[in-house]
Amino acid sequence: MGQKLSDIKETTSNAAEIIRQFGTPEMQMSLDKIRETAKTAHSIIESLKDPEMVKNIENLRLAAETVNNMSMKAENMVKEIKQTGIIDEASSTIKSVRKTMDSQDGPQNFAEIISAIREMLQSISSLIEELKFTVASSKKTGTLYTAEEAVREASSAYKNIKDLK
Fold first, then answer.
1. Which pLDDT belongs to residue 156?
2. Which residues neighbour 21 within 8 Å (Cβ) at sequence distance 6 or greater?
3. Is 37 or 24 the better-scoring residue by pLDDT?
4. Going by C-beta distance under 8 Å and a sequence separation of 6 or more, which residues neighbour residue 144?
């Protein structure tokens, strides 16, 4: 029993010391900081419950999902482009052009190539115009229809000859 009384006395003494320390200015400042922190935390929790804030958080989540999905799509697109070999082709073409440009004959050859391409494009344009004119005049005279009939007859004759052999 004496031990219990001694323990009670010591516990009471410790409690009294703690209560006395609560009265010190340092402890009051610490408690005030704890109280302010609790108020701020409570205010944040309450603002998170606001319907507008809930909607904003949901919008942020959706935006994050969209960014993630776009990132995955971009990765897949890059993989597909790499699989087609387009990047390698373009890279080798660029290297070839640089090599040609860096050679002594490069600029002259490049100019000749550009000139040849221009002439080719002009020839193609002239051919297109001539074909347009031919088709237009053929519609008027029926030349294409006659040519088509001749091709059919020749094809039929070829089949007949082939069947005879």
1. 72
2. 27
3. 37
4. 135, 138
- Sign of the Cα torsion 152, 157, 158, 163 reads positive
The whole-model pTM stands at 0.36
> For residues 106 and 100, is the Cβ–Cβ distance under 8 A?
yes
Confidence of residue 97 (pLDDT cuts 50, 70, 90): confident
> How far is Cα 126 from Cα 64, in angstroms, rounded to an integer?
56
Residues 6 or more apart whose CB falls under 8 angstroms from that of 47 comprise 53
Q: Two tokens at 106? A: 């490069």
Q: Are 102 and 96 in contact (CB under 8 A)?
A: no
H helix intervals, 1-85: 2-22, 25-49, 51-84
- CA gap 44, 40 in Å, rounded: 6
Residue 120 reports pLDDT greater than 70 = yes
Rg of the chain over Cα atoms, rounded to whole angstroms, equals 45
Phi, psi for 67 (deg, rounded to 5): -60, -40
- At 39 the pLDDT is 92
**Average of per-residue pLDDT across 57-83:** 82
